[in-house]
Amino acid sequence: MRILFITSNRLGDAVISTGVLDRLQQRFPSAMFTIVCGPVAAGLFSADPRCERIIVMEKKRHDRHWLDLWCECVRRRWFMVVDLRGSLLSYGLRTKHRVIVRGGRRPGRRVEQLGSALGYLPAPMPRVWISKVQSETAEALLPSEHQWCALGPTANWDGKIWPAERFVEVARALQAEGFRVIVLYGPGEAEKLRAEPVLQAVPEAVDLGGDRTLGEVAALLGRCALFVGNDSGLMHLAAAAGTPTLGLFGPSKASEYAPAGVCADFVAAPGVEGGAPIDGLSVQVVLDAAKAVIAKNLHGEVA
């Protein structure tokens, strides 16, 4: 029994989709899955024992990537095709069951939109898959004798990035509370440059960003008592890893993309959602919210 699962090219949306993928795996325990996603998200599924193949779909001119994907999948008869991209491709494949999530999203959080589309209510929370090697690597890098806090000072566009000097203030305040700080960011020179002001101002912080696999990053996050970061794929990964997570929102929509996890929350800059400048978010508001997230985790409350 084989299921084709087509998810997002973007990391954050791909992480959000792992909740419904996990529920499908529970529903069909003998099924093996082929995952279709973008190159940034591919590592998210590499440690999943039920994933027999990952098809990386890179965008091409004239939507030729969809034709290439159809050629990859058309020879097989599928038990089920789950298409979260709402494409026409799914109609051209042989399958016993077909679930297509089209545009025109319902109001509410994206995780709830996907859960509702597949008939799963309440919405299943995102999850991560971590290999034994990735877990051991994370344990060696972040030993348990310290209390670790992760900062995510980058994002995929500058409007979503809280000022670096405020991340530095948060780092200093958390260090005074006994935390050791790590800094995480994505691959590529642009991400490194965005994180550099924080790393330079807090030289004792552990630089763990860059070219690590997503499974390893998830394992690192799982060893942290707190994550504070901009609205990004990394924020969603932290929440999925079970890390107490505080997402920082400005012009992006927290009502749709707030982090979803066992202990996750957000703070948003004052103003109209979708247009509020993130620099309207104060350090004190972030610190107070971070302490509240930690307290919720200590008391076993679900955010």
UniProtKB/TrEMBL annotation:
Alphabetical list of CDD domains matching this protein: GT9_LPS_heptosyltransferase (cd03789)
Cellular component annotations (GO), alphabetically ordered: cytosol
InterPro entries tied to this protein: Glyco_trans_9 (IPR002201), LPS_LOS_Heptosyltrfase (IPR051199)
Pfam families registered for this protein in UniProt: Glyco_transf_9
One GO MF term: ADP-heptose-lipopolysaccharide heptosyltransferase activity
UniProt-listed GO biological process terms: lipopolysaccharide core region biosynthetic process
SUPFAM superfamilies: UDP-Glycosyltransferase/glycogen phosphorylase
Keywords: Glycosyltransferase, Transferase
Keyword match Ribonucleoprotein: no
Protein name: Glycosyl transferase
Species whose genome carries this gene: Gluconobacter wancherniae NBRC 103581
